[in-house]
Amino acid sequence: MTALGATASATAENWRSGRRAECRVLEELAGTSLENLTVAVLPEFDPAMRLGGRKMLKYMSEAAVLGTVAAHEAAHDAGVRRRFQPERVGLYAGTGLAAANVRDSIPMIRASMDQNGTLSYRLLGEKGLPSASPLLSFKILANMPPCIVSIIEGVKGPNLIFTPWEGQTGAALREAWLAVASGEVDCALTGGADSATHPATVVYLRKSGLLGESEYPASGAAYLVMERGETARRDGKRVYAEILDIETRPSDTLSRDPLAERIGRSFAAAPAILLALGCKICGTEVCVSGVDNQMFRARVKVAL
Amino acid sequence: MRRVVITGFGVVSPIGVGKEAFWEALSQGKSGITRITRFDCSTFDVQLAGEVKEEIDLPASVAEISAEDPKVGFAFAACAEALAEAGIKYLDEETLLHLGTSLEIFHLERVIKSGEIDFKAIASRTLSPDEPPLQIPLDTANRLVCEFFRRPGESLTNCSACAAGAQAIGHGFAGVRASRYELAVCGGFDSMINPLGIGGFQLLGALSTDNDRVESACRPFDASRSGAVLGEGAAVVVLEPLEKAISQRKTVLAEICGYGSTLDAYSLTAPDPEGDGAARSMHAALEDAGIEPGRIAHINTHGTGTHLNDEVEAAAIRRVFEGCWQKIPVSSTKSVTGHLIAAAGAVEVGACLLALVKGIMPANPWLKKVGKGCDLNHVVGEAAAFKGEYVLTNSFGFGGQNATLILRKSDGAR
User: Fold this and answer.
1) What is the model's pTM?
2) In chain A, what residues touch B126 (CB-CB under 8 Å)?
């Protein structure tokens, strides 16, 4: 799920054809110093249709929607449910900064202000909380997007969830690869999701100097299914690529996100999108360094 | 594969700051649950929590961030204590730093100012250089530890909710055992004792509203249990290969010998009623340790004090330890610390160390009448003497993530 396409194939095809993401300004930032800052626009998609139902959508933040849709596409493509015991499938994921929908909080905030327009904790307890959605917590807890993936895809094995920058998703991808290679799991569902175009996130990124003047943020997600080559061959599954190596290490050298110019910076989702694109189309090595000064580098051999 | 031992432990908890104070309070069954003092919660249904009340000595730059986000200071202090005990001054490229936490703090009062709830106004104000940011990312504690103790080969921020601390330690253990790291500094930190943290959990109906019972509000496995009580704090262990610890003549607190990690894949809000994920987590840890269930001599439960969780965990323990569960004493330390969410698993490793180092199993002091389906060999009343070699601790996370660790008494202590 990227600004270049709502599926892996669409993203790959649009990347190959040299397209660039559509961008727009954020209405929520009009009149601020960021009113001209643009963010990538995601293609329209129907998550209920993609997921085969509305189950759990009410619990999902934007990142969770993107992550579950991407994970579902990957798991379906690889036939994970059909081919593997759920206990032998691991889940390794990265998530971005917390980003609740501002609109979800407005009734609670409005009810918690006193006559002077000041926050009152007494009013929060008396009126604010009763008017809040009990689902709010599900949308801000960082582990929820991958946990929703586990429920929808029936994944029951070992798991790790890291947050909130590129290097952490890179580590999740590496842990997945190691777990499969070592035989700890037979299959790993692994990836990352980030709603980096959330207005609060955009404000944070720019205020903290984490988003360059020429850069634009992008929400996105990518998940991959990793399994051993012999298992895939045994089952006659299409192999997109062989992973030769995944490395993460500290680095002060900025390795620009190669997606940034055409897809936008998707932070915690970027390593997973890069690896997915690398496996699908490009080539031998993908590399990005993160806000957390961790370098993610993967070498893949694309199957012909 | 290498044997992995704990050479340092640091803790900040509602019952004590520092290992010895924590152990002393646990031994005595001292409760850290009080009325919330951080903010006026008089109109909240939930008015109790386990707050860290002691002042913590922190470097100025850490204290400044900790004033905004207390859990960051807790993490730093626990890391500093653990590293000092292990005799480690600086992290290096062969070190893993892996800390678990759960939720970014959000200062609601910054969103409401002079009657504004217009996001544009909030954004404009926040963008001003003089205003603090609205968000404090969850990797802030890692960043500060790296600044003061130098950069490790890998710095990971785990966000697996209530399983995060145990998962971080389990991952560090597996990494040191497999020679991926020479040293692992792992644990968890958390604080949700703020209006939105308490309010959010109140909305979920997971917290006790027994506000008049104060210190005994959290009663895991009791028939009258009424929910969890939130706590705050941090705990961190230093993990090293046994051979290295011996060659450097370090004090070994205990060995970690087994880790299990599973997913329920059942529901975001409730555990699998069969306890399948919890049972598989314990089985996986036992298999990883290469021991039979009967070798476990003590269990520290997840034991949150909620109706469903306690019953499901008790059933899972009885199933995994079929034929021997009646002989295994069980402690539930959230009864006195409260639920420290992402820090819980690491703090409860500290409770296991109390058994393995001092020979004391903490009591579940408020357990008077065991709830239906909660039969286990509970340690009630006062702390009891521990005799045995292996201890197991469970952490089960909101969202269905489960982690189990098995610790073993150090060779020298056996």
Assistant:
1) 0.97
2) 203, 207
